[in-house]
Each structure stands twice: as C-alpha cells, then as structure tokens.
Amino acid sequence: MADKKVVATVSLAGCFGCHMSMLDIDLRLLDLVQLVRFDRSPLTDIKKFTERAAIGLIEGGVCNDENVHVLREFRLNCDVLISVGECAIMGGLPALRNDIPLRECLEEAYLTGPTAVQGQRIIPHHVDLPKILDRVYPCHEIVKIDYYLPGCPPSADLIWAALSGLLSGKLDTLPRELVKYD
Ligand code: SF4
Description:
By secondary structure, the protein is an alpha/beta fold. It has helices at 17-23, 28-35, 65-77, 86-90, 102-112, 156-168; strands spanning 5-11, 36-38, 53-59, 62-64, 78-84, 132-137, 147-149. Helix content is 31%, strand content 20%.
C-alpha cells in the first residue's frame, strides 16, 4: 500500500462521461489498483485530499467559483495535472453559453423559458450556491495543466495508455491511433 502512487479525480462542469470512460478500462482496473490508490475522487467518495497525489485527473471545464476553488486545490495537491476530455480542455458543451450574456442565460432558464415553473419564476440565489462565472473556462486558463487527453470522452485505451505510461515513467508519446477529437 505504501508504495502505491496516489491518484485523485474530479468532475467540474462535466457529465461524468469521462469518468465512465476511465472505468471502461475494464479488467485493466485490476492492474491499476495494484499500482495506485485513489484518494479524493467520486470513485471513492473521498471529498478532501488525505495526502498529496502523484496524478490528478480533471473532467469538465470551469463554470462557477466552486469549480475554480476545487481546480486550484487539485493544482496545489497534485504533482501532475491532466485535463481529461473536451470540456476540461476547451469548455465543451457547457461552453455553448459563452456567446450569450449570463443574464440572458439565467432569464431563459428560470424566468421566460418553457421549463420555468409558473409561480416560481425566480433566479436562484443564496450564499451557499456557487456563483456562476461570466463564461465557461477551460482548465488551463485557471491553473497550469501538464497533459491533455482529447475526446468526448477520451477512449478508455487512451486513458490507460496515459496512466500506465505516467506510472511507469515511460510516457513519451501516446499512440496516434488512440487520440481522437470528437
Ligand atoms: Fe462529458 Fe464529453 Fe465533457 Fe467528458 S468531454 S465530461 S464525456 S461532455
């Protein structure tokens, strides 16, 4: 246990599809758990870092102030930080709102849109709710990112190639056929 590398993962403004792809490495998970211990992650339900991580995997872009805080916490606590998937790399689907003023988005969602509930037309606001940012930011605009795994989601084979390469200290280049951008 002591010589296992520590890995942490998080989903910011993402759909958990990238985490599903991580789990899709299937039987190689058995090899992975011989090499690593998952610390802070939705996979363990550990909410705070209990020790420094060798690798941090970030799914999703940054859409609110809580995402900023969590991403900075990952940067502080991880030796290597990886943007996993298009949302982390360039904002992805949530960034479709970037060309629309934030007020217009909120009004459409909560006041005027067809799903706004009659009689409950207020824009939610509370000190405990994360504050939505003016736009959705890719992770590298908030903190330094060391590696990028493209795809929506990146394939399980690409994630495995990156993880096993980093863990063995032999990550040179990733096989081109595993890299896709959709
Ligand atoms: Fe989901 Fe695709 Fe974004 Fe990953 S990149 S969080 S799969 S939408």
